């Protein structure tokens, strides 16, 4: 439903179907907090930057959950399918530019840029 193309059982029988339940928010927070913790310690950031780690993860998850809940796919907007890979792209983008962050303002600008790159660009 929701604009997704259905796959017939006749075609589906040629593939193995793997399904798993969606991860809860506590698990997602733990996963991305560990990634950020590793990244922040690897880059040896100052305390003024590392204290934003929890806020960075919480805000990213909030926007991700909002996008899933509010931006549902339709027949004309089938590209509105967001998954965990989109959220991981945000953190990968931030980590790839780690050497350019010197203060919390730059971290916020980088995070905003990555969120817009991943979520907003898909809307256009």
UniProtKB/TrEMBL annotation:
SUPFAM superfamilies: P-loop containing nucleoside triphosphate hydrolases (SSF52540). InterPro entries: DHC, DYNC2H1-like_lid, P-loop_NTPase. Residues 48-123 form the Dynein 2 heavy chain 1 cytoplasmic ATPase lid domain. It holds the Pfam family DYN_lid. One of its GO terms (molecular function) is dynein light intermediate chain binding. GO terms for biological process: microtubule-based movement. GO terms for cellular component: dynein complex. This is Dynein 2 heavy chain 1 cytoplasmic ATPase lid domain-containing protein. It comes from Pyramimonas obovata.
